[in-house]
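User: For my dataset I need records formatted as: sequence, then structure tokens, nothing else. Please produce one.
Assistant:
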Amino acid sequence: MAAALGTLDRALAAVRANDLRAALVDLLAAWRASLDVRIADAIDALSPLAAAEVRAPTDDAEWTRAASQRDPVMRHWLIVTLADVDGRGALVARARRLASDAPDDPRVASALCDLVAAPRVRVPESRSDTSWQQLFALLAHLRDPRVVDRARAFPEAWLRAGLRRGDHHVLSGHLAAAMPAIAAAHDAMVDDEDTGERAADPRARDALVADLAGELADIPASAATAFELGLLSAVYGAPADDAPRQVYADWLLDRGDPRGEFIALQLADRDPDRQRALIAAHGSRWLSPFGRSVLGRGARFARGFPDTLAATAIDNNRAWSTVRVAIGAVPEGDDWHLASLRELRYVRGPHIHQLAMLARPLPVTDVDWMTPFRGDVIADDDRAAFGAIVVLPELQSLVVRAVWPQAVVPEELAWLWTARWARALADVTLRVPIARLAMWHDAFSPTRLARVTLWGTSDSNGDLRGGIGYGFCAALSRDATGALSRLAMTWPTIPSDNPEYGAEAMAGLASLQRGQLTALTIAVPPTRFRTAGLQLRGELARLADRLDVELSLSLGIGN
């Protein structure tokens, strides 16, 4: 333990001298000598500070060249940009390189465990693809006693991430195969701790490391630029105000920092090509304050700061103050910094239970719920959790991504729009058979909902919120008198060889009665199949006549 204490002393001295590179090197040495988790936490805190003045790699060639340097400071950016590749093969190659070069770096172990716990690339069903098998095998070669507990928690993490049942099954098989080697590596580390200088006086070691941990926790505050933190604090404290962002941009521009140019361009809404180039070159660095909980791909910036983020968790980090849309995550506690948060997308069962545990209202107006597919109905525990939510008083729009069976009736789902959290709810989107359009029209008419969107069950891959899909969509809205009498439908492209095309939508229209609609709008993509197009146009015209409603039809027919 004397060696570990000596390197910790040198690390603290280096921090006081603002030599963060030397401090990081010494902390890594102390970790190797002790494997103390508190030192790993200090390394995580110091790593982004030490790398602040180092340029992150922007493409695969730069990443490979940077990795060849085996620089512990640059390794921070290698880890941050680990998943910024196309395809599983490239990702595995990067992970293998990190594990080979630095198996005893706790940042590498955490990054690879995070990668497995929240997969960022598709899980292949083919047994001939060994990419995930290789990732699991790497875990046994990492010198970090935390890996075994992380590995045992993977199945729960996959459930929280909402993995498909097939993906969960594939990954569970790989985990079962790799677990003996991971456990054996852990046991070897434990045996090693019982020998050598670390076992000389474990109580003295624990006491000394605990004393030093408090000082190490102050490293970020003492080493960070206080002025910049103040500028960022002003941005986070008033996320709706552009003025603090402009002040921060000007300060960065004076220092030659490209983020200053990026913020200024976004605030002025200029040069989108340059904005994209700056994000490609520096986006990973700008997301680093969020830590490993944020998935870099899919991130979007607005007014110079992250606006839309896919994440595995939303923690108590002030950087979340600017985020408007969170994908795949919900707050882990109350009093988080979420003044800008308006949309929760791809919310799953575990997220619903987490929301039910919160007490402080969120400013969220839109929720996109990926319901579990347990038979034909939502599980009772998920339904009870949804009913217990008290933190969504401003919820206006609810998308429920589930395919309901033909036998489902509105009464079985009424709890969705009558719950106490739904007082402000105005817009609901469901996946139900629109062949029974009249039944759903009658069910929603007496509610306070202003708009109801029904997607036909044939739409298996559509984007419910964006209106991009492969099935039939029927949107009911209220007219000036408040009656739910306006119907707008979108249809997929007319195929040449499908005599059943439009059957579900036509049946839904036919189920309506005269006087139920005051406006009917139907949009069909242009078609080159003239006969089919003319036939559809005639059928729709006859239906409109029967319903006594004027039809607004968009259907281009080629020659």
